[in-house]
Amino acid sequence: MGHYKKIALITFISLSLSTGTVGAAEISFGPEESDIKTAIRYTVIGKYRAEFEEYSGAIGIDSASRAIRSVSLTINPASIRSNCEWCDKIVKSKQLLWVEKFPDIIFKSEEIAREADHFLVKGALDLHGVVKPIAFPFYVQGWEDYIAGASPLNVRGQWLIHRKDYGITWNKLLDKGGVFVGEYITVDWEISVPFFNKGVAE
User: What is the pLDDT of residue 18?
Assistant: First the structure.
């Protein structure tokens, strides 16, 4: 599913819908319309880069008020794939994601506030059996062209996650100092939302 990117869990969503509509709608997405990529510092190989092959989500768009209303995403961590099979096994094992015990990674927004040049998305992230609040910015470009049916709506945002906050604490000290796996994961969202044709929601 394409090339890999920098340290980050990358979300690129290209929703194959048509016909611009002024109003509100919740637009679903999955692997057919988007990519979710991830990376974390991994001392032995430099950076571990992979992608999730199974997930589903939805984004609520309100064109009338030029607003993002909601965001949700559910990922199957067992579907993670990279070009390093040995690394995938470690990531999916009980040392890190422990996919047999924790079969889903779930995010659901609870509040989205308009700020000066972006939307602040607040919600709950359920990762590794731990549910914690998380807040991150969504920057939106292209409302007028989107409403006019001239181009998709572009949305981007970023998470910063300390994996130990979610009970993912395993690591290994190296003989020459340093650790085996990095502690921070950066989560980047890049969303391209085409015109929806599923009608206007209340």
Answer: 36
Q: pTM to 2 decimals?
A: 0.76
Who wins on pLDDT, 156 or 128? Answer: 128
Contact call for residues 191 and 27 (beta carbons, < 8 A): no
Which positions ≥6 away from 178 have C-beta within 8 Å?
43
Question: Which token pair is 33?
Answer: 């319309």
CA distances from 69 to 24, 51, 66, 113, 156 (A): 9, 27, 10, 9, 15
pLDDT band at 12 (very low <50, low <70, confident <90, very high): very low
CATH number of the domain at 44, please. 2.40.128.110
Residue 43 CA to residue 183 CA, distance in Å, equals 12
For 165, the token pair is 């906050």
Residues forming beta bridges with residue 139, ordered by sequence position: 156
Q: How confident is the model at residue 151 (pLDDT cuts 50, 70, 90)?
A: confident
* Domain total in the chain: 1
On the 0-12 / 13-18 / 19+ scale of CB atoms within 10 A, 172 is exposed
Q: Count the residues in the chain.
A: 202
Q: How far apart are CA 117 and CA 93, in angstroms?
A: 41
Please check whether residue 201 lies inside any domain of the structure: no
Residue 20 in this model has a pLDDT that exceeds 50 = no
Note the pLDDT of residue 135: 94
